[in-house]
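stuck on this:

***
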Amino acid sequence: MKLKLLVFILIANVFGLSAQVDESQTGAWYMYFYSHKFNNSEFGIQGDFQYRDWQGLGDKEQLLLRSGFTYTPKNVGVTFTLGYGNITTGQYGNSDETSAESRIYQEALIPQKLGNRVYLTHRFRFEQRFVEDQDFRTRYRYNLFLNVPLNKSDLSPKAFYIALYNELFINGQTDIGDSRTVELFDRNRTYLGMGYVLNPKIRFQFGWMNQKTVNWGKGQIQLSMHHNF
């Protein structure tokens, strides 16, 4: 009886492993980012809508809807955001199960220009996460963006540019409830892409991002539209 139970556990583990994320399979993220200032004031809105798929299309990884109010003090060079995100996360593979998350976040965005054509942006973000079937969680994020125009000296219309970023995620807690834990390190994302400035309000980017967590690492194609209206 004990031998049969052991064999059953081993078989279950094998099938469980086959359902884990296929790290060789390239996924895809489709993203729309927007920002707007109210009548040229110090206040505005910003956010993003993202559909993320494990395999390109047909296996939902995440649907993320996020928006926030912004405040940009004059002569400071920083934009602050207070926002909310709603996230639906799917399981890799054939499962249709999903989990829900509500997220409040605070953010500081600091643009910087080096020389005539190197655009840097630092983004610091603090998140308060309400994840389904988990205790309240927090997370710290830092993203360094780098944009370098190729055929022009600035990011003006008809400019092509190289886009890079790296983002580090650190969990605020390791205990998530019911004797479950996560690592202090949550994930890291590294991105390389090409961008095109269509006009003063719209630009597009296409690139590849590698995401590494404690348990897996995976490549993602990213297609994004950035809209300032």
About this structure: The two ends are 68 Å apart (CA to CA). The chain has one domain: 29-228.
